[in-house]
Write a structure and sequence with these properties.
Blueprint (H helix, E strand, L loop, with lengths): L12 H14 L3 E8 L4 E7 L14 E3 L4 H14 L19 H4 L3 H5 L27 H8 L16 H15 L3 H13 L5 E2 L9 E2 L2 H6 L11 E2 L13 H4 L1 E4 H15 L8 H7 L5 E2 L2 E4 L2 E6 L5 E7 L4 E7 L4 H9 L10
Antiparallel strand pairs: 1-2, 1-12, 3-7, 4-7, 5-6, 8-9, 9-10, 10-11, 11-12
Helix pairs in contact: 1-12, 2-6, 2-7, 5-6
């Protein structure tokens, strides 16, 4: 296991200078960059504002929405349940879900589901993507999630092909609840946040006074015409369109601090090195055994990566096997520039420790 140094109290000068450059180049409201190595040393830096038009600067302890990076967390919770002997990755979904499934879907394995190869559609109808009213993100999302899921689980499938599916990870959250005997959010706290010390982990938009997400083309497309966030405008965390519907929880509704995102990345770096960690190394190898994409990760020769966005935020987490380190970028914008910034934030050029 990595023994992490205390979270830095000040920005790394090298990373701060880099963050300032990326922030200006891509015209982002706020930005955070960080890296952690196998020696336990963590570097972090933030730049910019919590919201456009507001003078409050980003702080090192602020929380960020990480979107679909949540998928790897849901998969890791399931890996913990597999390690406990409650199921297998090759178990058919029909043996795991309490919802009615199309016969072809019932025959697909949990492994195929977590690799986006079970054949489910990408998303529910657009009207179900955002809830019509503000909601309490700490309440169990299970009943709403299962209502949204139910009709899609009976539709004809195209199993075997890769098809990125939020519906698939919503089903994964349902299955985790059946196996773990608790709501998905409680399982996330018990199986992930607690063991890894992710004290800032929460659900939905980060509460005030944390950074606010900012509207983008993507968020406008996900909402009905004439409604929803304005392009480039900050969105209050209690607004109706501040996040996707709670039904999406297991697919993409976690927020946490940049330091805790790096703590999570460090835990994955241990497993990616084939060392035992929050799950046995052999369980993690099995989780990511599918080609190209598995267990909530894009699989590459050099390591693992995933990004996430609900149209108002962008986050990016990368695990470098050769360098035994994790790097992260977070921003409170869902713009095209925010996605480009993730690629531009090349942290390998900076020193390993400040």
């Amino acid at each position: 296991m990595i023994i992490l140094d205390p979270i830095p109290e000040t920005c790394s000068p090298e990373l701060r200078a880099h963050a300032d450059r990326v922030l200006r180049r891509y015209r982002l409201p706020g930005l955070g960059l960080g890296k952690v190595g196998m020696d336990g040393g963590m570097q972090i830096a933030v730049a910019g504002l919590r919201a456009r038009g507001n003078p409050e600067p980003i702080s090192l302890t602020d929380r960020w929405h990480i979107g679909s990076i949540t998928k790897s967390m849901t998969a890791l919770v399931l890996a913990r349940l597999v390690a406990r002997g409650l199921t297998r990755f090759d178990a058919p979904l029909g043996d795991l879900a309490a919802l009615r499934l199309h016969p072809d879907l019932a025959r697909q394995s949990l492994r195929a589901l977590l690799a986006h190869r079970a054949g489910l559609a990408a998303n529910p109808a657009r009207a179900a993507c955002f809830g019509p009213d503000p909601c309490d993100s700490d309440q169990p999302e299970g009943p709403l999630r299962d209502r949204v899921l139910a009709p899609w689980l009976l539709k004809p499938l195209r199993p075997g092909r890769f098809r990125y599916s939020n519906l698939g990870y919503m089903l994964a959250g349902h299955i985790a609840e059946q196996l773990g005997g608790a709501p998905w959010k409680q399982l996330m706290r018990n199986e992930l946040a607690g063991p890894l010390g992710l004290d800032s982990l929460g659900f939905g938009p980060p509460p005030a006074p944390n950074p606010m997400g900012h509207g983008s083309i993507l968020s406008c497309l996900l909402t009905r015409r004439g409604y929803g966030p304005r392009w480039g405008a900050p969105i209050e965390p209690d607004a109706a369109f501040a996040d996707l519907s709670p039904a999406f929880g297991p697919a993409g509704l976690v927020h946490l601090s940049l330091a805790d995102l790096l703590r999570y990345g460090a835990a994955i770096a241990v497993l990616a090195k084939s060392e035992d960690g929050i799950v046995p190394a052999e369980i993690f190898r099995d989780l990511i055994s599918s080609r190209d994409y598995a267990g909530g990760w894009v699989i590459e020769a050099k390591g693992l990566r995933h990004n996430g966005s609900n149209g108002l935020w962008v986050a990016d987490l990368r695990i470098d096997r050769a360098r035994n380190e994790a790097t992260a970028m977070v921003t409170n914008s869902g713009s095209l520039g925010a996605f480009l910034a993730a690629g531009a934030a090349n942290l390998r050029r900076t020193p390993a420790r400040s």
